[in-house]
Amino acid sequence: MVRIAGVNIPDKKQILISLTSIYGVGLSLAKKILSEAKINFSKRTETLSSQELEKLKNIVEKQYKIEGELRREIMMNIRRLKEIGSWRGMRHVKGLPVRGQATRHNSRTVRGNVRKTVSSGRRKAPIPT
User: Is 15 exposed, middle or buried (0-12, 13-18, 19+ CB in 10 A)?
Assistant: First the structure.
């Protein structure tokens, strides 16, 4: 297995898809990196030469924010929003959708799949003795 930026890259997949296993690298950024390194998109990871791997490592690690650095930056941005008391920060604190989504029906993924059922509001009659 090839390691780039501390992540094991799958060998059997195309290099374009393998690069997306790095946090912060999607398809568009992977295409940009590969075109900069002059590597064919459809080439398999296991068939790359050591020179091509070095090119990839240098480009990915030196030019782009990925993995730990990117996660840290995102955490700092969220912490800043919470500290200044912005709307988005308060939504993060409460564990609700941040980007304007409705919460009446479809916010289960953010709330942790909480299923609250609502009854009719009428109480049951006490059991006769």
Answer: buried
